[in-house]
Amino acid sequence: MPLRFEGKVAVITGAAHGLGASHALAFAREGARVAVTDICQDLPHARYAMGKRDELNSVVEEIEAMGQQAIGLRCDVTKADDVENMVKKVIEEFGKIDILVNNAGIAFVAMPVWEVTEEAWDLTVDIMLKGTFLCCKYVLPHMIERRYGKIVNTGSIGSRGQRHNAPYSAVKAGIQAFTLAIAKDVGKYNINVNCVAPGSVYTPMMQGACEDASRDFKMQGDQLYAFICKQCHILGREILAEDISNSVLFLCSEEARNVNGHVLFVDGGFQAI
To answer: Is the pTM of this model over 0.90?
Structure first.
């Protein structure tokens, strides 16, 4: 049976660890050549570490060990020059871009909005919303020319508005609206644009958030995550990175060729509570 993405080229941002790494490996297992990108540095004001260069290299090596092709590229998605150069390098290396997964993200210690600094607000908007815009801006002309493309942006259950998390909530709601808008712009070019909105996945970012909040709940971070799963997921079980990756694979596959402008919540039923 042929692999779903044999002959395809996928670009994944924020892919040195967490969900991005899971996505990159999942596409490789299904036959894609993968561009693994990340900023590869810590950022001022950021509470949780960004992916490091050695982590990026490890993802590339793991893909190559499968017998698939991959390149690792440092890319700051907040900078137009970085994104434009990244897109050019991928096309030079692989000849095309079929799939773009905008996964790069950031989080901070939860706090009420009046305590949020302007720098923290700007960084949240720049990495997730501006970064999604810039990657689409520079990839879409190539996809339009070829009359083919699949784009998946990363939303969140936070788009409903989370207590002490106003910047993140605002940005994720913006990403979901942005997804619908560009889907309307490019559908006529045979380009599908969708959004996957994860629930609480125990990535390094989520782990850090639980450890921060654990003091208030008088329990360990992993215990707090288990409590969240029981209370906030109708299914009552944890959400794995592979659950999100499987949903991204579906949205980028021909099985979803008539799914466009859609926000797919993978949240164990959180939206129904």
So the answer is: no
